[in-house]
């Protein structure tokens, strides 16, 4: 039997076991996927003993993603770019790392809005943490000409621009509404919008009507940002799809089947979000 898990601290909130448990049943695979609460000071030892603990790999969530990247012996470009990993697997006795947030975000965007094109205007990203870095990388890789970054702390946005070069431009946080008007896509990667974490106060007046507005927050499923965008007639993409698609590569590495993200799986997660609401 193959065993995988998700590690974090805390870990109780994680919905990854619902996703992987669903696929294990769906594909009739003899495997398990569990939650493991691992304290920050125990992460290195835990990951170095994955194999002796009986695991073929794991997901990594907050606050261990940077440490996981540092511990892994081999890293895919997706993890090197962000300097953080959310998916680990063993090949022989070597630990490999990837960051599947870029894949998760871009795949969900293209599935949800099939006619979205990277060439129709700048992409605008709110925030400058690890998730922002993964998404900026995704847009640049998709061939977008310009990514505009808006962050409360400008220096963090400047560090991302420095990493990726002249296609990434830093804008003032206070100008996020005016600066994003011509965007073909706007993504919130900040914690603002999370249940109880304040709002972003975007004004969508005068926005390009083809702009797709995305939030990586998925509790609530419809954030205030998405509700406001919808009220202005803009298409929206919620954060749940990214969560579902980012899980695909890990499941395939551990269990040998590339799983499908289906409406039924999504409905299972939506029901859990409505029930737990956190
Ligand atoms: P992650 O790695 O998950 O993307 P992070 O590194 O903690 O998370 O980054 C969180 C992002 O949310 C940052 O861009 C942060 O802005 P600062 O760099 O100024 O801290 C942003 N953020 C958090 N709370 C916010 C709020 N209330 N308003 C605006 N931005 C916020």
Short characterization:
38% of the residues lie in helices and 20% in strands. It has 12 helices and 12 strands.
Shape annotation: globular
Whole-number radius of gyration? 19 Å
At CATH level 3, the topology of the largest domain is: Rossmann fold
Helix content: 25-40%
Tally of individual domains? 2
Specify the number of helices. Answer: 12
Structural class: alpha/beta
Q: How would a textbook summarize the main sheet?
A: 6 strands, mixed
Ligand catalogue: 2'-monophosphoadenosine-5'-diphosphate
Element-level helix/strand string: EHEHEHEHEEHEHEHEHEEHEHHH
CATH superfamily of the largest domain: NAD(P)-binding Rossmann-like Domain
Briefly, what CATH class of the largest domain? Alpha Beta
Strand segment tally: 12
Strand portion: 15-25%
Q: Report how far the terminal alpha carbons are from each other.
A: 32 Å
* CATH-defined architecture of the largest domain: 3-Layer(aba) Sandwich
Provide mean pLDDT, rounded.
96
Write out the strand line-up for the largest beta sheet, numbering strands in chain order: 2-1-3-5-6-4
